[in-house]
Amino acid sequence: MVSGALQIAGLLLGGIGMIGTFAVTGMPQWRVSAFIENNIIVFETIWEGLWMHCIRQANIRMQCKLYDSVLALSPDLQASRGLMCAGSVLSFLAFMVAIIGMKCMRCAQSSWQAKGYIVLMAGLLFILSGAIELIPVCWVANTIISDFYNPMVNVAQKRELGEALYLGWVAAFCLIAAGAIFCSFCRCCEKTRSYGYSAPIHYPTHSQHLHGRTESSYSKSQYV
């Protein structure tokens, strides 16, 4: 019962992390224009994402345009595009493997070892996808903060942390938590399997006691 609840909780966290990873990869709110001094028009907001940049005017009209080339991106966004795609694929594979492990919950006792390996693989994939997602999110956030406090950077080029970065941290945490749950469940499977295959202890029956006692009495009478 407890193991089933842990698996369901891990699957839910992994699904939330996977959907969040897909959303972060496609969202344009990675870098948001900062309103500093009077050099930036207040009613205009600039969003920069991995695939497009958008201009939103007074919460009424928004225009988005895909980047003409990958070279138009900064180095951190270029690397983030590839890492987020890899993290999305790994999170999807981990979710599928976890579903396969969930379907084997009522397998025979002899297949518990295979089930443990499947669940362990799902947990490791979840942890790996979460770690891969943390790299670009933290990298872009560090670049934004460094440029924001750098006096050599033009005010019009300074950016703030967008909503996609916060969502990326939450999604990565969900993926890593799901991986930890599945890895701990694999340990539970190993313990259950070792307990299930423990050798039974045979105790002598009453007839065996009588038989041994009779043989011992016969042996004593022969010596007499």
Automatic annotation (TrEMBL):
Q: Does the keyword Cytoplasm apply?
A: no
The UniProt GO MF terms for this protein read: structural molecule activity
Its annotated compartments are: Cell junction, Tight junction; Cell membrane
The UniProt entry, under Pfam families, shows: PMP22_Claudin (PF00822)
Q: Report one GO cellular component.
A: bicellular tight junction
The record lists the membrane-crossing segments as 81-105, 117-145, 165-185
Membrane topology classification: Multi-pass membrane protein
Q: What keywords are assigned to this protein?
A: Cell junction, Cell membrane, Membrane, Tight junction, Transmembrane, Transmembrane helix
The record's PROSITE patterns line, in alphabetical order, gives: CLAUDIN (PS01346)
Similarity remark: Belongs to the claudin family.
Please give the function described in this protein's UniProt entry. Claudins function as major constituents of the tight junction complexes that regulate the permeability of epithelia.
Indicate what this protein is called per its UniProt record: Claudin
Q: Which organism is it from?
A: Scopus umbretta
